[in-house]
């Protein structure tokens, strides 16, 4: 059975599916640490986890012949070779394109794993810069080329998981694309891509290819199902009868989002004597855009409260880690019963989350970034 070699997972990861394994941590736990502990970091696998013997491991890097003048070149590297290159560490959140899908589903059903808001984690990733490798091989900037990334995990027809990113992202010094062998200072675990994965900060989780075996500089995007016919956005009026996957670009940089992680949806609680309700959550935007504000309301937007943000001091455009936030809302001490809390984040381009899911609904349930809303009960 291809599932005989699956690694053990921490029991806090609530499975959204078991074969392949997909699991996310409870939201309250998720925001207890600015750096997500490795064992609490969500896992998103499309296929069985490959078993890789590190002494036999090789990474192939191919430069394909292109009209724009790159010449065929192939290089094979061992893990030792990659560890011999200058080591970089970046803090980057990875978020699945389907994070918060379970909220979008409430508008109308979608196809995909029913993720809550926990398909995200924030870690430090260490490894070689893809840029260094490509420059050493003589690759020149070119807006028309792509870097195709392939994993060692194979589908039943022996096709690997694959994705691609624009070459411009891979070569950008501020893009911080890493071939990572460490997560939070520890050897990558099997679920997170041991021995090597690509980290593409600011882009959708799907491009952060795990168990990396092949990199190709190419005229075409990855021909994989996940690049071509999945992880793309569509109009709310596009359905499975009318969808044409060639008509939408593959998701790369992610939009701004946030989630309330404490209290939990449906929680019953008492307001403390000082009258303040304390709320915790995370916010993040793709493309290296820093979170500049998180607004909270407990009265359907009549009054908004600005949350206090905890984040790394990184320049805008290169701010790849998430932000944690804490808000305090003064409640009427006499008010009891159901209260709805909403959160919305604003990024450095003043992009803000859309109000509702109705007008961003899409058949795959991706990019589910509307205001996060929870109901609690005050007694
Ligand atoms: N890489 C390979 N080889 N196989 C996969 O199934 N899943 C992708 C990406 N890289 C995947 C992969 C998706 S959709 C996401 S969201 C992230 O890995 C999840 O990374 P994580 O499991 O380390 O959290
Ligand atoms: Mo994903």
From TrEMBL:
Keyword Iron applies: yes
Enzyme nomenclature, EC number: 1.8.3.1
GO MF term (any one): molybdopterin cofactor binding
Known pathway: Sulfur metabolism; Energy metabolism; sulfur metabolism
Record's subcellular location: Mitochondrion intermembrane space
Keywords (A to Z) from UniProt: Heme, Iron, Membrane, Metal-binding, Mitochondrion, Molybdenum, Oxidoreductase, Transmembrane, Transmembrane helix
GO biological process: sulfur compound metabolic process
Cofactor(s) named in the record: heme b; Mo-molybdopterin
Domain of life: Eukaryota
Keyword Plastid: no
GO cellular component: mitochondrial intermembrane space
Assembly with partners or alone: Homodimer.
Protein name as it appears in the record: sulfite oxidase
Gene name of this polypeptide: SUOX
Whole sequence portion shown: 202 to 580 of 580
């Amino acid at each position: 059975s291809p599932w005989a070699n699956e690694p053990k997972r921490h029991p806090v990861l609530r499975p959204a599916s078991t074969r392949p394994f997909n699991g996310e941590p409870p939201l309250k736990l998720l925001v207890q640490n600015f750096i997500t502990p490795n064992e609490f970091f969500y896992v998103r696998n499309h296929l069985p986890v490959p078993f890789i013997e590190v002494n036999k491991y090789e990474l192939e890097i191919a430069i394909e012949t292109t009209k724009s003048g790159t010449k065929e070149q192939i290089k094979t590297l061992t893990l030792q070779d990659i560890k011999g290159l200058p080591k970089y560490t970046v803090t980057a959140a990875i978020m699945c394109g389907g994070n918060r899908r379970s909220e979008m589903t409430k508008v109308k059903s979608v196809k995909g794993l029913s993720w809550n808001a926990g398909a995200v984690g924030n870690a430090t990733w260490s490894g070689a810069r893809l840029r260094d490798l490509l420059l050493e091989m003589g690759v020149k900037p070119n807006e028309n080329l792509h870097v195709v990334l392939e994993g060692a995990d194979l589908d039943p027809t022996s096709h690997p998981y694959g994705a691609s990113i624009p070459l411009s992202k891979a070569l950008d010094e501020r893009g911080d694309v890493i071939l990572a062998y460490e997560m939070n200072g520890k050897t990558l675990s099997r679920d997170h891509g041991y021995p090597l994965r690509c980290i593409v900060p600011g882009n959708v989780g799907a491009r952060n290819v795990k168990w990396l075996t092949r990199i190709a500089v190419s005229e075409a995007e990855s021909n994989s199902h996940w690049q071509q016919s999945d992880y793309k956005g569509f109009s709310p009026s596009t359905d499975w009868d009318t969808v044409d996957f060639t008509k939408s670009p593959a998701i790369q940089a992610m939009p701004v989002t946030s989630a309330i992680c404490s209290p939990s949806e449906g929680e019953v609680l008492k307001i403390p004597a000082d009258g303040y309700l304390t709320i915790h959550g995370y916010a993040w935007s793709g493309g290296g855009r820093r979170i500049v504000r998180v607004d909270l309301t407990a009265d359907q937007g009549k009054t908004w409260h600005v949350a206090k943000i905890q984040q790394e001091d990184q320049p805008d455009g290169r701010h790849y880690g998430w932000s944690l936030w804490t808000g305090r809302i003064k409640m009427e001490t006499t008010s009891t019963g159901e209260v709805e809390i909403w959160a919305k984040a604003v990024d450095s381009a003043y992009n803000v989350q859309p109000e509702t899911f109705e007008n961003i609904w899409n058949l795959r349930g991706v990019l589910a970034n509307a205001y996060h809303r929870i109901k609690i009960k005050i007694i």
